[in-house]
Design a protein that fits this description.
It is a single chain. This protein is elongated. The protein is built from 14 helices and five strands. The longest helix is centred in the C-terminal third of the chain and has 22 residues, at about 295-315. The two termini are about 25 Å apart. It is α/β, with parallel strands linked by helices.
Length: about 325
């Protein structure tokens, strides 16, 4: 019942769970209570609930799904193409290949991309020449697609050369899956934050309220446990939005940032990509301590109601 967690906290309990509970929630609650992981220590000042566990769990980049992200991979080595493509495809990224700098330019003009991976040493036109031409095209079209350099040279001077040439980040070869995915994730976050508002609104308005394919895949993975996920999301998201409304009154950025991050992750897992993007925007805004307006939370709340409606439809 409402108020039970506070009641048990006052009695001196360290954690509070409602039965039945999933085994991983029980396991992680025990870890939180015992302070096993640094990511859980922030919850140590009050009674641990399953929402604290969900909020405080580390998000591994290797577990992240980049479904819908379109990447242009400019690389002349067949082996390097296969290595990078294998990593990207496993994480849902849609890849277009270019064997040289001129092909990269042609494909960039022909198709739309969210990010470019650019090898520096290629025939016809190298990565530096291709980057210069692509950035010129972007200036003319008022676009901001980030370009990440891929190079076997790992000296600091090589990194500076790439950045000076107009590339936005640098990944040295050979690279690990984690290194490459982190670079992509960081660039995508920056490009969303820096994109013109009109571009953002266009992107958001074109997204589905709920990507059913993501939800269906999750149902297949969780099997009998899936029945718990939608009620848990609805309950936790209402708790989160209530906390956001409360924190907005006094502009408590740390609290809003934490709840926006939690909502972003849970929405992405269920395929509510538009609401996830809105939550990510709010999270970044709070990081920079930019005032949060009531209208923003109203938009998030309205989108959440649409998501809940779609989730209920999916259940039936």
């Amino acid at each position: 019942r409402k108020g039970d967690a506070k009641y048990f906290e006052q009695l001196g309990f360290s954690g509070y769970l409602i039965k039945p509970t999933l085994s991983d929630i029980l396991h992680d609650t025990l870890e939180c209570v015992l302070g096993e992981f640094d990511a859980h220590r922030s919850t140590a000042h009050h009674i641990i609930t399953k929402y604290d566990v969900i909020d405080s769990k580390d998000d591994s980049i290797l577990d992240k799904n980049f479904k819908g992200v379109r990447v242009l991979l400019a690389e002349d080595s067949l082996v390097n193409q296969k290595v990078a493509s294998s990593i990207l495809k496993k994480h849902g990224i849609d890849i277009t290949l270019a064997d040289n700098g001129q092909q990269a330019i042609d494909k960039f003009i022909e198709l739309e991309f969210d990010l470019v991976l650019m090898d520096c040493q290629m025939p016809e036109k190298d990565g530096f020449e291709a980057t210069a031409e692509i950035n010129l095209i972007q200036q003319q079209n008022n676009t901001q697609v980030p370009i990440i350099a891929l190079t076997a040279n790992a000296m600091e001077s090589d990194k500076e050369k790439c950045l000076s040439a107009g590339m936005h980040d640098f990944v040295a070869k050979p690279f690990s899956s984690e290194t490459l995915l982190n670079a992509i994730d960081n660039m995508l976050k920056k490009s969303i934050k820096q994109a013109p508002t009109s571009t953002l609104e266009t992107v958001k308005s074109g997204r589905q309220v709920l990507d059913i394919s993501v939800l269906a895949a999750l149902k297949n993975i969780m099997e009998e446990d899936f029945v718990e996920i939608i009620p848990a999301f609805i309950e936790s998201s209402k708790h989160i939005t209530s906390a956001l409304w409360q924190a907005q009154k006094t502009q408590q950025f740390d609290i809003m940032q934490r709840h926006a991050h939690s909502l972003k992750s849970s929405c992405a897992n269920l395929g509510a990509l538009q609401l996830s993007a809105m939550s990510k925007d709010l999270e970044e805004q709070c990081k920079q301590q930019i005032q949060v307006e009531l209208s923003q939370l109203q938009s998030i709340d309205e989108q959440l109601q649409q998501v809940i409606h779609k989730l209920n439809e999916f259940q039936t």
